[in-house]
Backbone:
């Protein structure tokens, strides 16, 4: 909007519609001024909390209490020991976040592997093969997707309590897979649909069986979608909170990073700045992953959005 | 929990979808051969989809059916061992839940939270998308930065917010008292209401509720931003150009050129965001624990489940939540679905 001044100049010279030009000029000036202000504000709003997180993670609790308003850090205040404390195992006086990270990583990677293993053939079937009940299956997935997870939480909580699976990472893994697999099939299906069928037909004519065609032709072509899908699943599983809380809360050694942070965040014994270091540890992998694969992810995020 | 990935992928099929497989099969081959092929295809399709179906049946469908059955039984955590699908069915849970203190309040809070949170998120997302519509140096980086609140783990985000808003050492209250001259620090997350004067009017602001709504807006505006940006890119430049030559001012061009094109996207976004906010548990549980007038139904369900151990009542409330959501979404689709299809 700000770059349009020159194109309108002849219009103004022509002299007609003096009032309209006046309003136009006013609006253009207004938006030219507002735009950078709005953009700056938005960026600040989005980023400052995370800047504050990093800032606090390098300060000691004392220095925070002495000067809560500081928005930067002096070299004298710089204190990376928070990270050592938060990562160290409980037996050594730390908070055990290294262990939480291991748990989160195991669950997240397990969810990615298992979900993709199940979702890729499923997505292929939904997008390529006419089978009995295909439409209903899609409807079912959609319903699963929009269900309140709290309604699912109640029976799963009861069931896991009954069979004594609460506190086990495997139980959590199964729930995560069931939660993401429908979404995963949906996004992959859209991608499979864009691969020309003729390629597969060509392979079939060359004598390849269905599985072979899937493995040799469709899968490599769908790789970008599969990778971005895998990243998504990783993020979901890494960030997830409700089910981790319900299933793992009583066994500290099984906590994920999210759960650990939320549980310790409520207690007074652990200094806030140490937990900020924990927050950074929780957030950093996701942000790094996001920036490393932003193009891929944003492409995946908006896949199919053009139609509105 | 699937918000992050899910939403976007399911905005309906991509525009460049090839014809449905059935039609492809139908179009080629002779009758007899086709029969053979469909049978083989049917079997292959079912085989490939079956692992998904099994997982979803075992971990989603059966549990939900069981939740429905639990909602009609008097079950507490203590007698959980002997609980199954069948028992003495009763409506007592529903009667208790609906007449209990605070349920209608929680429902009202949920509605307020979802409507305002959704509206704010879409509004801010729209402003962001419009402000970043024209290319400039560093736009890509700014766009990525705006997405951070959405991808960051909710536990970390709520933890930072509660630290920033902390009455003792939070940076917001420090600035408020030192710079803006507040008389005393504000407990944003634990005060039900604070008196404030707006242009001389004395009002009681439901501060905790306002804070969680703002948090929701902050966290989900990037989602709206992303969608609206994608839609804006698909708007042909010629329209805008023509309107400009005809002397339309920026607001007129937005009102008459851009907005009509964005409305279908905004409608879909409203449904998605409303559903997710309505179901949301994490944000409010982590920020306020449901205290200070912010108890939404999902947090209430959780408290009934864990603190009271009243499984029957918890299921009944969750079920009521799901039914209300389904009704609201159906009404919305009935009212606006037709227009969306046209668009």
Residues:
């Amino acid at each position: 909007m700000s770059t349009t001044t020159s194109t309108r100049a002849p219009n103004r010279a022509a002299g007609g519609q003096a009032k309209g030009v006046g309003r136009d000029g006013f609006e253009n000036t207004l938006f030219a001024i507002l735009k950078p202000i709005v953009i700056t504000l938005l960026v600040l709003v989005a980023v400052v909390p995370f800047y504050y997180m990093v800032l606090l993670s390098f300060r000691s609790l004392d220095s925070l209490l002495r000067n809560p308003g500081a928005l930067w850090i002096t070299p004298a205040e710089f204190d990376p020991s928070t990270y050592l404390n938060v990562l160290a195992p409980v037996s050594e006086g730390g908070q055990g976040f290294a262990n939480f990270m291991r748990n989160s990583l195991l669950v997240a990677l397990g969810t990615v592997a298992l979900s993709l293993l199940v979702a890729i053939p499923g997505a292929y079937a939904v997008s390529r093969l006419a089978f009995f009940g295909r439409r209903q299956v899609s409807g079912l997935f959609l319903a699963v997707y929009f269900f309140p997870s709290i309604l699912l939480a109640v029976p799963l909580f009861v069931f896991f309590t009954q069979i004594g699976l609460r506190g086990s990472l495997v139980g959590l893994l199964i729930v995560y897979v069931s939660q993401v697999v429908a979404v995963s099939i949906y996004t992959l299906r859209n991608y499979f649909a864009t691969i020309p069928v003729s390629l597969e037909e060509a392979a079939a004519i060359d004598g390849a069986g269905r599985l072979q065609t899937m493995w040799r032709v469709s899968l490599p072509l769908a790789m970008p979608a599969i990778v971005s899908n895998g990243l998504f699943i990783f993020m979901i599983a890494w960030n997830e909170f409700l089910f981790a809380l319900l299933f793992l809360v009583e066994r500290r050694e099984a906590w994920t990073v999210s759960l650990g942070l939320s549980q310790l965040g409520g207690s007074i014994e652990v200094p806030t700045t140490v937990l900020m270091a924990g927050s950074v540890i929780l957030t950093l992998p996701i942000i790094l992953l996001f920036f490393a694969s932003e193009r891929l992810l944003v492409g995946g995020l908006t896949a199919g959005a053009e139609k509105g | 929990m699937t918000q992050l990935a899910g939403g976007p992928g399911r905005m309906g099929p991509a525009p460049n979808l090839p014809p449905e497989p059935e039609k492809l099969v139908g179009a080629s081959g002779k009758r007899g051969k086709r029969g053979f092929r469909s049978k083989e295809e049917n079997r292959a399709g079912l085989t490939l989809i079956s692992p998904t179906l099994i997982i979803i049946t075992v971990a989603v469908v059966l549990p939900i059916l069981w939740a429905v059955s639990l909602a009609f039984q008097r079950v507490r955590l203590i007698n959980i061992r002997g609980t199954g699908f069948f028992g003495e069915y009763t409506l007592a849970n529903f009667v208790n839940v609906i007449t209990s203190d605070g349920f209608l309040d929680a429902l009202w809070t949920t509605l307020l939270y979802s409507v305002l949170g959704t509206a704010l998120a879409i509004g801010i997302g729209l402003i962001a998308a419009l402000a970043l519509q024209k290319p400039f140096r560093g736009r890509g980086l700014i766009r990525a930065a705006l997405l951070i609140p959405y991808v960051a783990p909710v536990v970390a985000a709520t933890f930072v917010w509660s630290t920033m808003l902390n009455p003792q050492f939070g940076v917001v209250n420090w600035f408020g008292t030192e710079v803006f001259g507040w008389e005393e620090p504000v407990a944003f997350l634990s005060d039900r209401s604070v008196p404030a004067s707006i242009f001389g009017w004395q009002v009681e602001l439901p501060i905790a509720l306002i804070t969680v709504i703002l948090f929701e807006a902050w966290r989900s505006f990037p989602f709206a931003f992303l969608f609206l940006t994608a839609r804006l890119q698909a708007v042909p430049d010629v329209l805008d150009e023509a309107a400009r030559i005809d002397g339309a001012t920026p607001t007129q061009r937005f009102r008459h050129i851009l907005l009509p094109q964005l409305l279908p996207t905004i409608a879909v976004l409203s449904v998605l965001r409303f559903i997710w906010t309505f179901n949301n548990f994490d944000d409010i549980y982590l920020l306020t624990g449901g205290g200070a007038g912010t108890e939404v139904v999902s947090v209430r369900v959780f408290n009934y489940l864990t603190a009271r151990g009243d499984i029957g009542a918890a299921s009944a409330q969750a079920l009521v939540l799901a039914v209300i959501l389904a009704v609201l979404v159906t009404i919305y689709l009935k009212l606006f679905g037709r227009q969306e299809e046209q668009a």
